[in-house]
Design goal:
The protein is of the alpha+beta class and 379 residues long. 38% of the residues lie in helices and 21% in strands.
């Protein structure tokens, strides 16, 4: 999200903002919000309608949907193929951040690389921004667990040799393949709804702390894009258009200008691409390119990638106060547990600027601005 605020307007109030966000957005393992519990019928609608359900319930604005991949709803979702265990896990977790590398980050535009493209995204130097990174919570995790068992059996049935069990799979047109895609679409729609609700609570929190109107704050959604998802898309292969299943794992969509799936507001510049780094350094906003469509099925990376495992990160952080280290850099962090902070120390990740320079240099996305964090909430 972009805002109508400049960094000096919130610099001295970042603790208030982050503390309020931490209260208003449940985070951590098993987190839930008591005033948003779904019954079975409501949950089914969330899985079918995604962010559209959230907006319909008053969480956000209809214009937000124009800036969400697939307008916040993957078609062909069918809750019949989601297990009762997955449904039970998801019912109390809508509107929650979760744990691990999920976060809400308040920052600002530190550098602008292309004034024209930045202006088309409504971004300028020193402007306050917010990034939300979370997904389908326990529901999506359970869908994955359930279908790993299904796919292991299916791979044997269809004579597919697996170099690793986690690569278990089935033909898309098979019963198992069709049912998994329908269940995965449900999880994706849950994630869209989840982020939309959190977006609404971010806006409410800024209004509450700064005592400003929505018109003054101008907390507008630039883009919401998936990663770790398989989608049916049309691409050109050897000069012929084909309908393909594109699985972006550790990757995100990067469609070029004038692609039919790019929102009207961005038709001339291409789809916004979001590549977050770690809580101690920076993140980037880019746009998709024609070369990405030609060479990578319209894809680019979605983050820096880990250098240290969570166990290695804990060893590296032993005896240190990571929160104080970050505060010395001007970054205020709140987390549900110390364990999350030490697992997510900045040096556990590659320097995202190196990664972004590679994708920019390869021409599969074009960097527009660098964002630096002022405050972060973690799970």
């Amino acid at each position: 999200m972009r805002s109508g605020l400049e960094r000096p307007e919130i610099q001295d109030r970042i603790r208030e903002i982050i503390d309020a966000l931490f209260i208003n957005i449940p985070s951590g393992v098993g987190s839930h919000r008591k005033d948003l519990r779904l019954d079975a019928g409501q949950e089914r609608k969330v899985l079918m309608k995604g962010a559209q359900w959230a907006v319909d319930q008053g969480y956000g604005r209809w214009e937000d949907l124009e800036h969400i991949e697939e307008r916040g709803r993957i078609p062909d979702a069918d809750p019949e193929f989601v297990s009762s265990k997955a449904l039970d896990r998801g019912r109390a977790q809508l509107g929650t951040l979760g744990s691990g590398n999920h976060f809400v980050e308040v920052g600002y535009v530190a550098e602008v690389y292309d004034e024209g493209l930045a202006g088309a995204l409504g971004l300028r130097k020193d402007q306050v921004t917010v990034i939300v990174h979370t997904g389908s919570r326990g529901l999506g995790h359970q869908v994955c667990d359930d279908y790993i068992r299904v796919m292991l059996q299916a791979a044997q049935r269809y004579g597919i040799e697996l170099p690793d069990k986690q690569l278990c799979c089935a033909p898309i047109g098979s019963k198992e393949g069709r049912e998994y895609l329908a269940a995965m679409a449900c999880a994706a729609n849950f994630a869209f709804a989840n982020r939309q609700i959190i977006t609404h609570w971010v806006r409410e929190t800024f209004e509450q702390v700064l005592r400003m109107s929505p018109r003054t704050l101008q907390l507008d959604l630039i883009y919401d894009v998936c990663h770790n998802i398989a989608k049916l898309e049309t691409h050109e292969v050897n000069g012929r258009k084909r309908r393909l299943c594109v699985h972006r794992k550790g990757a995100t969509r990067a469609f070029p200008p004038h692609h039919p799936d790019v929102p009207d507001d961005y038709k001339e510049i291409g789809q916004p691409v979001l590549i977050p780094g770690d809580m101690g350094r920076y993140s980037y906003v880019l746009v998709g390119t024609q070369r990405a469509l030609q060479e990578t099925f319209g894809s680019t990376c979605h983050g820096a990638g880990r250098l240290l495992s969570r166990h290695q990160a804990k060893k590296s952080a032993h005896g240190r106060s990571v929160t104080q280290e970050l505060e010395a850099k001007g970054i205020y962090v709140r987390a549900a547990s110390r364990a999350t902070i030490v697992e997510e120390i900045p040096e556990a990740y590659k320097d995202v600027s190196d990664v972004v320079d590679v994708v920019h240099g390869a021409g599969i996305s074009k960097k527009i601005v660098k964002l630096k964090p002022l405050g972060v909430i973690k799970g």
